[in-house]
Design a protein that fits this description.
Elements (H helix, E strand, L loop, with lengths): L3 H17 L12 H17 L4 H7 L6 E13 L4 E10 L4 E10 L7 E6 L2 H17 L1
Antiparallel strand pairs: 1-2, 2-3, 3-4
Length: 140
């Protein structure tokens, strides 16, 4: 039997239950436009970030300057405890070369509306070697 007291309790509790999900923040999706733009910007800034290292700076100059698109974007894992999403994507560079990238996106502790993106640079070795070989072949 439902009493008026139970109905009042339900009417008070229901909005709290609905709102409780609103404050849970997860890291943005791998395909979020802001995340994609951040990945592209990180790649574009790599040569500038390495300019103080003469050897790395020299090799970085051989890289295509920008990523034109990210495709086949997919999540690899999500750690709920630290709100960290690991992603993979295929990047098309300005010279039409494609490379596989891995990156992470994580919400900031103090401001869950902000996020941090880190680009895994494992792709650089193969890309640098490929571009050096192409440059030396062009020089001949």
């Amino acid at each position: 039997m439902i009493t008026k007291k139970m109905v009042k309790l339900f009417m008070v509790a229901a909005p709290i239950l609905v709102l409780s999900g609103c404050f849970e923040t997860q890291a943005p999706e791998c395909s979020d436009e802001d995340v994609i733009e951040t990945v592209k910007n990180i790649y574009t800034e790599l040569p500038e970030k390495n300019k103080d290292n003469p050897i790395a700076g020299m090799f970085m100059k051989t890289l295509p300057k920008s990523i034109t698109s990210l495709d086949s974007i997919r999540p690899i894992s999500y750690d709920e405890n630290i709100k960290l999403r690991t992603c993979k994507a295929q990047a098309t560079l300005e010279n039409q070369q494609t490379i596989d990238l891995q990156y992470t996106v994580q919400t900031m502790e103090k401001d869950p509306d902000q996020f941090y993106v880190e680009l895994n640079t494992d792709f650089l070795e193969g890309l640098l070697m490929n571009n050096i070989m192409n440059h030396s072949a062009d020089a001949e």
